[in-house]
Write the structure tokens for this entry.
Amino acid sequence: MNIRKIRKDFPILDKKIHGKKLVYLDNAATSQKPIQVIDAISQFYKHHNANIHRGVHTLSEEATKAFEDAHTKASKFIGSTFEETIFTKGTTESLNLLAYSLKDKVKKGDEIVLSQMEHHSNITPWQVLAKQKGAKIKFLKINKQGALDKKQFSEVINKKTKIVSLAHMSNVLGTINPTKEIRKITAENNALFILDAAQTVPNIPVNVKKLDCDFLAFSGHKMLGPTGIGVLYGKKHLLEELPPFQTGGDMIEEVNFKESTWNKLPWKFEAGTPNIAGAVGFGAALDYLKKIGLETIQNYEHIISQKLIAEFDLLDFVELYGPKTSRGAVFAFNIKKLHSHDVATFLDEAGIAVRAGHHCAMPLTSTLGINGSVRASFYFYNTEEEVMMLISELKRIKGLLTK
Ligand code: PMP
């Protein structure tokens, strides 16, 4: 991987912030976009823009092909099939779709199992469902290292469990969760196994058939694509059983004055005019990532992570949350006695973009016994030099504190 060449594809990385070179370490929130993605969207609007599936004219056929090609690319990217790959606005919409469409599978007294490290978008849709149905939500606990102890799985997941929905990787702790063990125990108890893969699909090879999950959700904007486009994968027999989330144009087979029948998969779950240009940009993003290779990206981020962990180990004023192994390149930490927002503001002055606060995981924040944290999250276009810039800025901030 030629990092210098790669960085040239990302125009924004040349930007100066407060006169300093931008160091973009907020990739868990959203990634930057290469010129190939920006151009694909612009080319679509310049040369192929039309609505899809309805027109017989040439432009509409071109737009339809571009949109459907993006579905094919997304399905291949995660080892699924065209029919099982639904485009949504992103992870949040995918999980809301599921919580809505699974409503008939959950009844009073049933249990839904999540973990303490979930993003709000994998908590709130289930809370709404549980409230409507009189079901109970149980949370798998994190240990001191910020990982899930496997021992608790058989205690928490049982015959009452209907759904287990889990972050594949935590957007705060960086923890990568043990899917094999969870899959086994959900299958033994006839529960559905859902993965929130917003943080893994961009960074490590993900294959839905190997994971054997029932559903999986992710967002295009965290993997070089535009905002407003993402995926819900579902096993075909399950998607066929479920009622649609939204109804209206394009998702129907036939409508009369009394009732309607639904279109085939995946269109049954894609009501209305979709984000066509977004899908085209997403397709270009998938091409870009495929060319580099997810294994290459994973290995590179592992090197960056090891470097950062080794440097953090030398800083006694930094408290790092999350495990040191089985993790991705997302690091939540605090400088003792400083508020995370103050640290992020100091870093911004140095051109370093990080996130501060609860990172849409308030229950996790309170479990950790903190009021927030600073989060530095890396992608394959970040460099070891940028790791060192973060470290030296943290030292400078600490120095200011002791002056
Ligand atoms: N789950 C996880 C683990 C995430 O990191 C995020 C984004 N921070 C989401 C869900 C929500 O993604 P989106 O806002 O793209 O719908």
Observations:
- Residues 305 and 329 are 5 Å apart (CA to CA).
